[in-house]
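Subject: Sanity check before I submit

Could someone independently write out the structure tokens for this chain? I want to compare against mine line by line before I put it in a report. The sequence has 132 residues.
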Amino acid sequence: MSVSEETTSQVLPPHAQLIQMATASWVSAVVYAAAKLGLADQLSTTPKSGAELADTMGLHAPTLHRFMRTLAGLGLLTERDNQRFALTPLGEALKQILVAIGEERPRAPSRSLTPESGPITDRPLSTASGAG
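---
Independent answer below. Compare away.
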């Protein structure tokens, strides 16, 4: 198989490429929120559950659990027994992302992650996207 045939066989179909483009901003928002919350620092020593982290981080436990499952789906975390999550090698990079974009790492969570608010804004999700 030639190099061009290999490259062509690895290219996603057009509909899959469009889906990736459409969801890119969501993925970016989730990664940014994880970095701003300092989640990688919280998980750097041992796997923890959303319930364990919620109190120390001042976050809503069920929402944090769903957020961490989203990060697992993106390959940044891995879910272990008892709903505990650990960093993957990709997730380790969350520790440096804020420095890379010129922001300081948080000392404490600066935003609330509740069912009524999005991961980056304090506005309700319906207004955060400009939909309402």
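---
OP: Matches mine. For the report I'm noting this point. DSSP finds eight helices and three strands in the chain.
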